[in-house]
Design a protein that fits this description.
Length: 194
């Protein structure tokens, strides 16, 4: 099996811990939608402790190690987040701070990453989107350049734990294709680096 035929492994990270999170529902739907060409595993951030540099190294919490390993093993990351107070949720920022270590050598370095935000508001979480992309860029992640994936009025587009809006699903499909292209380019570039 060549590198080009290896199925794409995506990691989904939801910025919401809420049991009936719209963002988690979108990730679940996305995983089902792309099942023929890729896998999408959702990482639960609920066990990630507050960032504390004293716990780096030998004292690294297991949940943080699990997060770093999940990012390292995947081909690309899909971050789905709500917007809290005009910004990204603290739980997501906290997880990204843990995952950004060690500086310049984090598992996110060079990792193709797609950001999507969703909100009941008409803005769709666009301000959080900007913050998340900026944080990922500081971590040296490869933020996939697509029109911002913002899902406004998300409460009207998710039902029974699934994204049901055809237009939003089509928009997500285009963004996932861009992420897959970035992953394919990275796979092609790897042998040249080695």
């Amino acid at each position: 099996m060549t590198e080009a035929t290896v199925p794409i492994r995506l990691l989904g990270i939801s910025g919401s811990l809420r049991r009936h999170s719209y963002c988690t529902a979108i990730l679940r739907t996305l995983g089902q939608t792309i099942a023929e060409s890729a896998t999408l595993e959702i990482f639960d951030l609920s066990s990630i402790p507050p960032y504390n540099e004293d716990e780096e190294g030998e004292n690294l919490p297991q949940a943080v190690l699990d997060l770093r390993q999940a990012v390292e093993k995947c081909d690309g990351v899909v971050l789905a987040s709500p917007e809290f107070n005009h910004g990204m949720p603290g739980v997501l920022k906290n997880a990204l701070d843990w995952a950004s270590r060690p500086a310049y050598r984090s598992p996110f370095a060079g990792k193709p990453s797609l950001v999507l935000t969703a909100s009941p508001a008409f803005t769709g979480g666009v301000r959080a989107q900007s913050q998340i992309a900026e944080t990922l860029a500081a971590m040296l992640a490869h933020v996939v350049a697509v029109p911002q994936v913002v899902i406004a009025s998300v409460h009207e587009k998710v039902a029974d734990g699934r994204m049901t809006d055809p237009a939003s699903l089509q928009f997500l499909a285009v963004a996932i294709d861009a992420l897959a292209d970035a992953i394919a380019l990275r796979r092609l570039a790897r042998p040249a680096i080695a």
